[in-house]
Amino acid sequence: MRVSEKEIEVRYAETDAMQVVYHGQYLVWFELGRTQLMEDLGFRYADMEEEGYLAPVLDVQISYRKPFRYGEKAWVYTWIQEYNGVRTVYGYEIKNRDGDVCVTGTTSHTLVKKESFRPVSMKRTFPDWHKVYLKNTQPAK
User: Fold this and answer.
1) Identified catalytic residue from 16, 47, 59, 128
2) How far is CA 118 from CA 46, 58, 68, 103, 134, in A?
3) CATH for the 4-135 domain, from 3.90.550.50, 3.10.129.10, 2.130.10.120, 3.40.50.300
């Protein structure tokens, strides 16, 4: 199973009135981590879009344990938690400099045609992605 790492420097614009990272910003960090994972696996989401497909978010789960503040660094760790050829669930941990897990979560996605938003099988549409995703899915517990 491949676990990707993406370093983030907390920008002032990502913080709220309490001077901590705004809770919705972590979804952007998840996206950065997911994109990094795809690249680490040898693919680019932009290539998928150019071929007329999208992978919209179907569901999000996120848990907050510790805040981040402006100027700190965060590391987003991303992996494929579940994959069945149609639906992909990515797992995330965001850690601070000390290695503390500050945020955890998952996002669920499916592959759709850009024009119609009709779901399609990744196995049939992108067989190379399918093989790599199967190989890199977290083993069931």
Assistant:
1) 16
2) 19, 13, 38, 32, 23
3) 3.10.129.10
Give the pLDDT of the chain (141 residues) as one tens digit per residue.
Answer: 899 999 999 999 999 988 999 999 999 999 999 999 999 999 999 999 999 999 999 999 999 999 999 999 999 999 999 999 999 999 999 999 999 999 999 999 999 999 999 999 999 999 999 999 999 998 866
Report yes or no: 100 and 139 within 8 Å, Cβ to Cβ: no
Whether 16 is a known active-site residue: answer yes
What pTM does this model have? 0.94
